Amino acid sequence: MLDERKKRVLQAIVEEYIQTAEPVSSNAIMNCEGLECSSATIRNEMAELEKMRYLEKPHTSAGRVPSAKGYRYYVDELLQEDKITLEEIKYISEKLENKVNQIEEITQIASSTISEITHYTTVAIGPNTNEQIIENIRFVLLNSRMMMAVILTDTGLVKETIIKFDEDITENQVQTLSYMFNNKLKGQPITKIDKPLEKYLVDEMSYSVNLIKPIIEQMKKVVEEESIHLEGATRLLELPEFNSLEVAKNFVNILDEKELMADMLNTGFAKDINVYIGEENEKEELKDFSIVTFKHRIGNKDLGTIGIIGPKRMDYAKVISVMKYISKKLNGNDTKKDE
Amino acid sequence: MLDERKKRVLQAIVEEYIQTAEPVSSNAIMNCEGLECSSATIRNEMAELEKMRYLEKPHTSAGRVPSAKGYRYYVDELLQEDKITLEEIKYISEKLENKVNQIEEITQIASSTISEITHYTTVAIGPNTNEQIIENIRFVLLNSRMMMAVILTDTGLVKETIIKFDEDITENQVQTLSYMFNNKLKGQPITKIDKPLEKYLVDEMSYSVNLIKPIIEQMKKVVEEESIHLEGATRLLELPEFNSLEVAKNFVNILDEKELMADMLNTGFAKDINVYIGEENEKEELKDFSIVTFKHRIGNKDLGTIGIIGPKRMDYAKVISVMKYISKKLNGNDTKKDE
DNA sequence: TTTTAGCACTCGATTATGTCGTTTGCTAAT
DNA sequence: ATTAGCAAACGACATAATCGAGTGCTAAAA
Fold first, then answer.
1. Which nucleotides of C are covered by protein (CB under 7 A)?
2. Nearest-CB residue to A101 (from B162, B245, B253)
3. What is the rounded distance in angstroms from the CA atom of residue A79 to the CA atom of residue A88?
């Protein structure tokens, strides 16, 4: 356990470093509130905090920098969560009240709003489609060889896709197909759209393969697509830690790895808001970054995940306040209730 | 007019510089084919080419670098267009034969294929929707307050959108709406979906505003959206000219400017393949880049544009060969005919 | 007249050297 | 327990020195 003054010193160092990105000297924080003592005293405290691994020194004659442990302590114990302004609250409300027609859109709007306010990069992924239950399927004949399939799920997700055939189809065929598919799939998990169903329809119900195969394949494809949406990808490049070309490239490459991003957003959701600091990230590539995530859900239905990625010295207080607010707004707001 | 040896020298310098990104010395090209003379002779030729503005010198004791004029001459007169390999041809064929269901998809596939083969960044934009003629409109009731609208155009473009209402709607209403919209819009340019139509339907045909307004607004919105698709955005960062953080950031920012990208792809289509070298670009921001574009079209119908963006010393021979090949494949291939 | 060998000169890149300022850690006094 | 004072550490920055690739010119050779 840290005594009161050590807490103050740690907090001051973390906050100063978050702001300046420069190692923090004993002088720099001497005048912080709650620290009315000389720089020498602070140096002693700093030496002890370093021994306890809350702080690190880039080299002998530099100031101190928080370690991952230091940030962690700060996030868990010291940070104040009211770092969201009235303007920001207003801005968020405006953004989220925009009428949207697709459930995925609201996640993206939330994501981009967070990026705008915090100036970090955000990632939004759509709901895990595997968990969805089919509520309804519509087939629409577009022309003699094209049909559109629309899948509605219990969470309000709408997936549509165009299906092309090698032979002409009729309005009548579409009708019976529609009936058939709804009959088999209504109330079923979306994963049922798969080979076995194709086999059943062809073998048992003696539909033509040429008809069924493209439908199943295309529907399966569109249902499995995962949507990843990046926002403010270039924002981090403005930060001083990305002044080295190496680091900048590394970051850009990370963003390119869709897989990694998806994985990153899908690890552990113990709490409402999840914070991973530097080495706490499972992925080696992310050890220089911090990540904060939350899930957009109604009840226990997953509607998508939003994550923010920034430097280890990210402004946790701000980020967490904003994300908590938006999370509440999204997850509380079920359909109605403004402001 | 350049004499034969000057052409050889210019060509050698351009090609060497394209490969190495280093100023080319008289020694370096001494042994190129067609240049069996001493470095001193080459130096004299280089001095003259510089006087004629085909070459530039970064500083006194460095080799030469092609000017925009030099590149232009190379592209127009010297470049050999057979720099596409059999493997590449095969790879392109495979990619393009993938069944796609959306006309826009094929443009994107072509775009990403080009990026993969050339290692530059490519941009694809969808067709100019304004020019499209409406062939058919379908309305599908999804649930009591949601409808999907599907618009088919003469070029095979399919645009769909979800429309939400504040009041319940019935299958019947959807039917009459469908009839009405098709009646008014079939054969009309897509730009007719606009305020005047809304006004007409509400005022003259006495439909409810609550019904018509969301439909028109949403359809208008989806029709006007321009799709811009980037591929290989980070590829250029590997090139030596992007080793300076300044340039790299600048490049990333350019890619961020969707407007700029769209503009860039929409300037002048005098030829099949259009090449803009450095300062030839209208936009100030692009003066350090070269851009090669072509239009995907069937007959005189615009189906989208594909552009490649790279350094001024881009491998024009390769890029142009590849783009010519793909362009022919896309624009020739109307629907059928494999290989 | 054209080509080429030879050579002085230019100039950026790289490396070495020196100086400065910040910050620490320790000691001794408070 | 705190603090003033001071030597030592060390990166950052500026300056100087060196190196070498490449040119342009001159004069000789073809």
1. 3-6, 9-12, 21-27
2. B162
3. 19
Task: Assess whether pLDDT exceeds 90 at residue B101.
Answer: no
Q: What whole-number distance in Å separates Cα of residue B251 and Cα of residue B233? A: 9
Is the pLDDT at B338 greater than 50, yes or no? no
The predicted pLDDT at position A334 comes to 41
Q: Do A150 and B142 touch (CB under 8 A)?
A: yes
Distance in angstroms (rounded) separating the CA atoms of residues B70 and B51: 12
Q: Is B7 helix (H, G, I), strand (E, B) or coil?
A: helix
Q: Which residue has the tokens 């949507």?
A: A227
CA distance B100 to A162: 9
Q: What's the token pair of residue A334?
A: 């079920």
Q: What percent of chain B has pLDDT above 90?
A: 76
State, as a whole number of angstroms, the distance between the CA of A28 and the C1' of C28.
25
Nearest residue to A296 via CA among A321, A268, A329 = A329
Match 């709007």 to its residue by tokens. Answer: A109
**Tens-place pLDDT, residues A262-304:** 888 888 777 889 999 999 998 899 999 999 999 998 888 889 9
Q: Please indicate whether, in this complex, the C-beta atoms of A248 and B248 are within 8 angstroms of each other.
A: yes
> pLDDT category, A336, cuts 50, 70, 90?
very low
Place of tokens 């219990």: A154
Residue A36: other Cβ atoms inside 10 A: 9
Amino acid whose CA is nearest the C1' of C24: A61
- Residue B202 is classified by DSSP as I
Average pLDDT over chain B, rounded to an integer: 92
Instruction: In whole angstroms, give the CA distance from residue A304 to residue A319.
Output: 19
**Can you tell me which residue has the tokens 């002044």?**
A243
Structure tokens at A227: 């949507």
Residues 14-43 of B with CB under 7 A from strand C: 37-38, 40-41
Helix locations, A21-166, DSSP H: 39-51, 68-73, 86-97, 103-118
Minimum distance, in Å, between the CA of residue A151 and any CA atom of chain B: 9
* Tokens (6 digits) for A311: 């430097």
Q: Which has the closest alpha carbon to B103: B143, B151, B140? A: B151
Task: Give me the pLDDT at residue A266, please.
Answer: 84
**Distance, CA of A104 to CA of A16 (rounded, Å):** 38
Q: What stretches of chain A show up as alpha helix (H) in DSSP? A: 4-20, 39-51, 68-73, 86-97, 103-118, 171-185, 195-199, 209-224, 245-256, 258-265, 316-332
The conformation of residue A141, written as its DSSP 8-state character, comes to E
Rounded-to-integer distance, Cα B152 and Cα B175, Å: 17
